[in-house]
Write a structure and sequence with these properties.
single chain, about 170 residues, alpha+beta, Aminopeptidase, seven-stranded mixed β-sheet, 5 helices
Length: about 170
């Protein structure tokens, strides 16, 4: 799936926990407005917990881009509730600033979408993105995601608020 032979896109395993932990912490520290998770909350989790989560195979996963170290990641979470398990949430999309402009974000999303299409009964992908993140919105739109709403004041950071676009992609033919 990768068009750049110097970039390896693959699902992360428990063996990637420390690299994922470091990359996720860096993203939360440098771009706190872009994520629903707070850096302090994330750092309170031991790496072993992250390792356990990466090991799970219940329709949820994290995809990473190695160029050659872990340069970016994106996650997919599918819940278990009967009435909502037809959809999954894309979360945690991040490409380290030193690797941007190389198409890694698109490669990550393409791999996540391809993996999602293999999950039995999964019909729709959902995501939210801060309305000021024009590059990410453009990427998601180029892959077929459509905005279906906007959540005002979705995130509160210090005394400021960030609105988020709510986007979806149908996996149905």
């Amino acid at each position: 799936m990768t068009s750049n032979p110097n970039i390896d896109i693959r699902r992360l395993s428990d063996m990637d926990a420390e690299d994922f932990y470091a990359l996720r912490a860096r993203g939360l520290r440098l771009h706190p407005e872009a994520f629903g998770e707070d850096l302090t909350e994330f750092l309170s989790k031991p790496v072993e917990e992250i390792s356990r989560r990466l090991k799970m195979t219940t329709g949820s996963f994290v995809v990473g881009a190695f160029a050659p170290g872990l340069a970016g990641c994106v996650g997919l979470y599918r819940g278990h509730a009967l009435k909502t398990k037809h959809k999954a949430k894309i979360w945690g999309m991040y490409v380290d600033s030193s690797h941007r402009g190389r198409g890694i974000g698109k490669l990550l999303m393409l791999k996540a979408i391809a993996n999602a299409r293999t999950i039995n009964g999964l019909e729709e992908l959902m995501l939210s993105v801060v309305t000021t993140n024009i590059a990410a919105i453009g990427l998601y739109e180029s892959l077929g995601f459509q905005t279906y709403g906007m959540e005002p004041r979705a995130l509160k950071l210090d005394e400021g608020y960030w609105d988020e676009h709510l986007m979806r992609l149908s996996l149905l033919p």
